[in-house]
What does this fold into?
Amino acid sequence: MTRSRRVRMRRVYDPPEEADGSRVLVDRIWPRGLSKEAAALDEWCKDVAPSTGLRTWYGHDPARFEEFSRRYRTELRDEPHEAALQHLRELSRHGTLTLLTATKDSGISAAAVLREVLTH
It folds into this structure.
């Protein structure tokens, strides 16, 4: 029996909710001005984040999101991305997984790409 994966995506600055399940920060850089206690994370999975080069190139430019998404999906097939992605898959098999990001527009973030990858 395959369990339906429930993968949520939220800003790390938003207060935790009971429905979050496992809260995992998926950004490479720690969120500015946020203490570890306030983040209320279960873990920080930096290895699944886009490479510094890709993140810098993208710069959260909405016009580049489609190409960013394509390049990031390619990166996710390489180590250590692949191992980190597998870890997130395992977490999602055991309950709700909430991907956390500091990005202001989470709909065009690496977390959005990850959510798509994890749920399809």
Notes: The beta strands are 7-11, 22-25, 43-44, 97-101.
